[in-house]
TrEMBL record:
InterPro entries: Glycosyltransferase_28 (IPR050426), UDP_glucos_trans (IPR002213). GO terms for biological process: antibiotic biosynthetic process. It comes from the Bacteria. This is UDP:flavonoid glycosyltransferase YjiC (YdhE family). Keywords: Transferase. One of its GO terms (molecular function) is UDP-glycosyltransferase activity.
Amino acid sequence: MTLLVISPDYASHLLPLATLATAWRDAGERVVVATGPATAPIVRDFGLEHHELALGRGNNARIVRTEEQEAEESASLQGFFDATRRGMIPTLRYQAHERLTDLMWQPVETGRRVLDLVALLEPDEIIVDHLAFSARVALQAAGIAYGDVVLGHPTALPVAGEVYGYAPFWPSEFSPEAEELAELRALCEQVSASFTAQWNSAALAINPEALPTQDAFAEHGARVLYNYPAALADGDGRQLPPHEFLGSTRRTEPADEEVDAWIATGEPYAYVSFGSFLSVRDDVLARVSAALSKIGMRTAIATGSTPTSALGALPDAWLVREYLPQVRLLGEASFAVTHGGNNSVTEAIGQGVPLVVLPFSTDQFAGAAAISRTGLGESLDPNAATVDELAASFARVRDLPDTARSLLSTIAAEQRETPGPQIAYATLRSAHSETS
């Protein structure tokens, strides 16, 4: 049997999708990953076949740097980074304006390449990153079933009453004005209408008999797989489509003698990472570092695109690198500090690690609110939190109450018993059997 995986050319997207695919690989089945050239080495490291397929104008193998992108993408990224410094509403507004170019890239040409690949491989099962709209529009127009993997908070797939790009909830640390929110929602509704028109136009070009949709952002595959812990979504009042929660997709990382020796000292530590994109926020990372020093917490910090020199004087006992084996370090961490990206949140919670979330964009705000609501950590405004406020939050999360620790232990035990790749494999194999 053959599994086809379709992913944007970003490591943060490919890593969880490739990890899901290991369930098929380990069962002796063929796995082909269609993605761009930047992440091809990651595909090969997983022991999977690579087929080149561009789904957008940007890419990154581990860390995003504007100077390594094409001019148009570089300008877009710089605009985004600048917006994050102005706060939640400016960032969401900027992302809304950019949506027609960063999510629906050359949909007809890309969609036809996807269908050509499907015809060539004749896969038995397909899983697609939910944000790969240019691929999904073609599959849906052609009536081809696929597993829709939502990487991020479940609000990345809007339900009735919601509009894509408008956070249905956010942490109390953010207090936007009612007028700002109304203007943002109106903008997101306009963008959604334009995006839907673009989706319908592409679908008709691919299949003249394709039925139009009323909201392209709300479209999804027959099987929705949320790469997210169910415990964080419970109680938020949203009515989800038929789905499965995968919990997390924790990959196996190569051995690293220096990291293993650093962990083996047994001294408690915090883990810090702002992911592929937001590591550019050197000002926030510097405040986080100062706060961790203030409470005397040994720390492993992945600096990403921020030079270590921008963080000031750091203790000798810290582990500081541009890129670190995140899953390995989270496995023993006392707590973690994150921007609220999907990999950081799921890989931490899935290993029983509480979080301090400093959200910058998109569904990170909803994810931060979920962490606060469930008591599995805290959230702060990255642009406003002082060193003292950060230090106080870190100390509280380090000493999280037993009730929260118990919930974290339960989540981790459930995910050890039934890992995300196993859930995805069973779900799609069941669907395949039903249609065979």
